[in-house]
C-alpha cells in the first residue's frame, strides 16, 4: 500500500490500511496566530501493519517515519472519528487541490480515506476493547444527525514536526462536534486514556507529506487552494456534510455507532 500511497491518488476503499492521520483533531501550525499546542504524534501511518501483527519497529518500512508508541503485543491503536464518504466530485476537488499544492511541495500525497477525528490515537489493551466500545455506544446513543460545513483550507503539523497536512477546517457545526468530543472524552477518562485537545481545530485531512513543510504551504499556496475550493462548482453541496454515524477503529476492527 505504501508505494500507492506515495503516488498518492487512489479512490480505492481497499486501502483502509492507510492509517494516515489517526488522531488528527490537529492544531493549526504554531506559526499561526492561535498559539494553541500542537497535536502529539498520531500512531498509525500509511501502509503500516497493525500493532497486533507487527512487533518489530523498522522505520525503513514506513518511509522513515517513527510511530508515536512502540509496537507491543496486545496493544491496539484506537481512534474515534466521523467517517466521510468521498463522492466522485470530492475526489475531483481533491485532485485539483493536490496537483496545485504539489507545485509548492512535490512530495505531497493525497489521503485515501477521509474523516473528522473525535479522539487522538490512543492505545487500548485487547481486553479493554469490548468494554470501551460498549461505553462509547451508551454515551453516543442519544445523539442526532447533524450538519457540518468544512470549507476552510488550513495547514497542520503534528507535534514533533515530522509530518505536515493540508485539511479542510470545519467552519459550521463546531458546537455539535465539541459535544460529541465531550462524550468520547468521558469514555477515555474511564480507561485512563488521554482526552482530545483543548480548543481543537476539527478538519478533514486531504493530503500529507513527511517533514515540517508548513512554511511552503502557508501564504501563497494556501490562498490559491482556498480560491480553488471557493470556485469549485459543487463545493457548497459537497462540503456541507450530514454526519450519519460515528466510527471507532481499534487495531483492524471497526465499530459503528449510528446517529439518530
Automatic annotation (TrEMBL):
GO terms for cellular component: nucleus. Residues 1-69 are annotated as: Disordered. GO terms for biological process: U6 snRNA 3'-end processing. GO terms for molecular function: 3'-5'-RNA exonuclease activity; lyase activity. Keywords: Hydrolase, Lyase, Nuclease, Nucleus. The keyword Nuclease applies. Gene3D superfamilies: Cyclic phosphodiesterase. InterPro entries: Usb1. It catalyses: a 3'-end uridylyl-adenosine-RNA = a 3'-end 2',3'-cyclophospho-uridine-RNA + adenosine; a 3'-end uridylyl-uridine-RNA = a 3'-end 2',3'-cyclophospho-uridine-RNA + uridine. HAMAP family: USB1. PANTHER family: U6 SNRNA PHOSPHODIESTERASE 1 (PTHR13522:SF3). 3'-5' RNA exonuclease that trims the 3' end of oligo(U) and oligo(A) tracts of the pre-U6 small nuclear RNA (snRNA) molecule, leading to the formation of a mature U6 snRNA 3' end-terminated with a 2',3'-cyclic phosphate. Participates in the U6 snRNA 3' end processing that prevents U6 snRNA degradation. In addition also removes uridines from the 3' end of U6atac snRNA and possibly the vault RNA VTRNA1-1. This is U6 snRNA phosphodiesterase 1. It comes from Bombycilla garrulus (Bohemian waxwing). The gene is Usb1.
Amino acid at each position: 500500500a505504501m508505494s500507492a500511497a506515495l503516488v498518492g491518488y487512489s479512490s480505492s476503499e481497499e486501502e483502509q490500511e492507510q492509517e494516515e492521520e489517526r488522531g488528527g483533531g490537529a492544531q493549526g501550525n504554531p506559526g499561526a496566530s492561535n498559539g494553541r499546542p500542537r497535536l502529539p504524534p498520531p500512531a498509525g501511518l500509511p501502509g503500516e501493519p497493525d500493532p497486533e501483527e507487527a512487533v518489530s519497529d523498522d522505520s525503513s518500512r514506513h518511509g522513515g517515519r517513527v510511530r508515536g508508541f512502540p509496537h507491543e503485543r496486545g496493544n491496539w491503536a484506537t481512534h474515534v472519528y466521523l467517517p466521510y464518504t468521498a463522492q466522485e466530485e470530492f475526489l475531483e476537488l481533491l485532485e485539483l487541490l493536490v496537483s496545485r499544492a504539489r507545485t509548492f511541495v512535490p512530495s505531497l500525497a493525497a489521503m485515501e480515506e477521509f474523516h473528522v477525528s473525535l479522539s487522538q490515537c490512543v492505545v487500548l489493551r485487547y481486553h479493554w476493547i469490548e468494554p470501551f466500545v460498549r461505553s462509547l455506544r451508551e454515551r453516543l446513543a442519544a445523539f442526532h444527525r447533524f450538519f457540518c460545513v468544512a470549507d476552510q483550507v488550513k495547514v497542520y503539523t503534528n507535534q514533533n514536526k515530522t509530518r505536515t497536512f493540508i485539511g479542510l477546517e470545519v467552519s459550521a457545526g463546531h458546537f455539535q462536534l465539541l459535544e460529541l468530543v465531550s462524550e468520547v472524552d468521558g469514555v477515555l477518562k474511564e480507561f485512563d486514556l488521554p482526552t482530545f485537545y483543548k480548543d481543537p481545530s476539527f478538519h478533514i485531512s486531504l493530503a500529507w507529506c513527511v517533514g515540517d513543510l508548513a512554511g511552503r504551504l502557508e501564504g501563497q499556496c494556501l490562498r490559491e487552494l482556498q480560491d480553488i475550493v471557493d470556485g469549485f462548482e459543487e463545493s457548497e453541496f459537497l462540503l456541507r456534510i450530514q454526519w450519519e454515524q460515528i466510527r471507532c477503529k481499534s487495531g483492524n476492527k471497526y465499530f459503528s455507532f449510528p446517529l439518530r
